[in-house]
Description:
This protein has helices at 41-48, 70-73, 90-100, 105-118, 134-147, 164-181, 192-198, 216-221, 226-231, and strands at residues 3-12, 15-25, 30-34, 56-61, 64-65, 76-79, 152-156, 184-189, 201-206, 209-215, 235-239, 242-246, 251-253, 258-269, 274-280, 283-288, 301-306, 310-312.
Amino acid sequence: MHVSVEGLRxxxxxxxxxxxxxxxxxxxSTTAVFGPNGSGKTTLLRLIxxxxxxxxxxxxxxxxxxxxxxxxxQQVAFAFQEAVFVRGSVRRNLDLALKLRDVPAAQxxxxxxxxxxxxxxxxxxxxxxxxxxxxxxxxxxxxRALSLRAPVTLLDEPLSGIDRLTRVQLLDDLPRMLGxxxxxxxxxxxxxQEAFRLADHLVVLVDGRVHAAGPKAEVYxxxxxxxxxxxxxxxxxxxxxxxxxxxxxxxxxxxxxxxFALAVERVVDMGNHLHVVGRIGRVRVDVRLRRGDTIxxxxxxxxxxxxxxxxxxx
Length: 314
């Protein structure tokens, strides 16, 4: 289902939290709303889900405005950042979510079983939901939302607060789960890796305003400003009257490209290779040494080259 935002403004306590003139979420795709903490990501998700009312403007799911009534909420499945369960088993919690959507009993059984299998919960269905580990609870939270097979699935920081191993597994598993159960998915995250691993499209949100939106390759290739470039992982340096965004791995000691003088602060041993960390002006820069490069001393000035970069708007 296509989701659109028109003239959306949301204020809380006299402070403008969101100001989005226009925004489109592509039907049948996964979009990551990506930005720092406090940028309004979760508020936008709650407005799409009908859990908040905008100060101005509107959200549409398909052709229908989201107004918080039961009809618009039926279009959405929402997995909150922190899983909340009623007393009883995982099975009961999944079944209750389907029952509240008026899914017939026969369908509820196979739908919750299928979602549990895809989310790795088959052996946990009869365990008390409130006794799950954090990682297990997050999988149950996802299974509950995905079993609804709603036109729009909303995920609030779906990998937040879980251990590294579980997070790595979910980074691999979640795209498959979404492809199986979800139609249009909108997730929020402050983690760049999650955004790129999970989504087809990106919306970069900073201070309640959209700085960039579109297919992730296009957003990455053409960051419109320094804030967006830095969020996307670029190191932004200034040369004469322009700003250059250098991607991770885009620096070498010497070599061809745009050259800068780097003041060496330290050399970091990463086990199988070395990194030189220093500053170009006030910008911290990390350069991986190549085999055969001379190891500079702390306080030394060396010439580094940006071997790949993109122009960045001011």
